[in-house]
Amino acid sequence: MPPSESAARSDQPSIPAAPVRCPCGSGNSYDDCCRRLHRGDARAATAEQLMRSRYSAFAVGDAGYLLRTWHPGTRPDTIELDRTVRWMRLDIDRTERGTLFDTEGVVEFTAHSRQDGRRAQQHEVSRFVKVSGAWLYLDAAD
């Protein structure tokens, strides 16, 4: 997901207190799910898992993780997150490849949010590549 146009600087993630459910929608606690990836204790095994962890990074405000998991060929120098956006739900619409054995993958998703009392949706078809065993976000497909 690209950063918001009207963004406020975000240096520190707002880590939820355990045992809060993970924002990615897995049903697991944040500690047992995406936090392990955000902290660098684990890597995403699939493109979908990376997509979910990146959505969670938006939800908790972890700009550093978003940059670390963005392909260097398409990654911006910095990213600013809009703290007024509250990420509500992630729907994975479809996946293409992106398994343990693939080096490329596509994840189509819809991210639901609220800002200033208004509901919004962001739909994207994201492309991912595996580099040196690590999945990275490449870009949004046209």
UniProtKB/TrEMBL annotation:
Protein name: UPF0225 protein C3B59_14690
Classification via PANTHER family: ADENYLATE CYCLASE-ASSOCIATED CAP C-TERMINAL DOMAIN-CONTAINING PROTEIN, UPF0225 PROTEIN SCO1677
Pfam families documented for this protein: YchJ_M-like
Family listed: Belongs to the UPF0225 family.
Stretches assigned to the YchJ-like middle NTF2-like domain: 46-140
Domain of life assignment: Bacteria
